[in-house]
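Allow me, if you will, to draw on your knowledge of protein folds for a short while. A protein sequence and the structure tokens that stand for its backbone fold form the material at issue. I would ask you to consider whether the tokens describe a fold that such a sequence might reasonably adopt. Thank you for your consideration; the sequence and its tokens are set out here:
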Amino acid sequence: MQLFVDSANLDEIKKVNDLGILGGVTTNPTLIVKQLSSTISSNNPNQKDLLKQILKISKVDILAEPISPKFDDIIKEGLELVKLSSNIVVKIPMTQDGICAVKELKLYGKRTKKIIKTAITLIFSVEQAIISALAGVDYICPFVGRLDDIGQNGLDLIKDIMTVYKNYNFKTKVIVASVRNKKHIFESSKYGADAVTVPYKIIEEMFNHDLTTKGIEKFLSDWAKVEKKGYNNIKQF
């Protein structure tokens, strides 16, 4: 399993990369706008500028989304995005125009001998996942948290998608999105999801356990007692 960070915040992405666990980055228009609006610059930064900075941090796949939902504009914007790097994955919403755009981008890649990777986002059903796999997309992003919000069990979708994909040996990778808690990560890994994409705060939470904290405190406390008693024959190094 890979761990993607769901963020356009450069500091957050760098922190995860420095840990050595960054599998990829997912962005969307909302995250991009949030980051750009907090950037103080006289140079009027835009999406491409921000993506260039993310690409400098690590050579992992970065999912970037065209703004327009219309076929022609998806192609135009997608081709502009992939000019930045072969690590850019064009992330497209699950619509008929989106699936047609996947086909066109794949054909363009073959004609020009360029690597163009695609992802379909806003997946909420197995049927949508099947269409995406048949279209040959590299990644899908099924949303578990938003299904939970409407009273469904989002993790059931991951279980069903992974079962179908294994039945037919589909090559499309599953990045579990809209992750709200550590259980979403744990259960997704049990079902064999290829990746989860999570906010930085949840990655921080993955490190924590009460027994780990208590264990460290106990070690430090015991060592402090040794030093206080002056046991010169007991040394750390």
User: Anything to note?
Assistant: The first strand starts at residue 2 and ends at 6. The CA atoms of residues 123 and 129 lie 7 Å apart. The mean pLDDT is 94.
